[in-house]
Design brief:
mainly alpha; 2 helices; 0% strand; flat
Length: 38
Amino acid sequence: MTAWAAAIATTGVSPAVPDYRLLVFSYFIFYIAVRIIS
């Protein structure tokens, strides 16, 4: 849940200007966190 919150926080830094690199990076971090937790 913490990783989920971190991913949302990281992605929502600049919602007006979507940075796809940041979005992919956030998703990658979230994926790694899920793999570790599971």
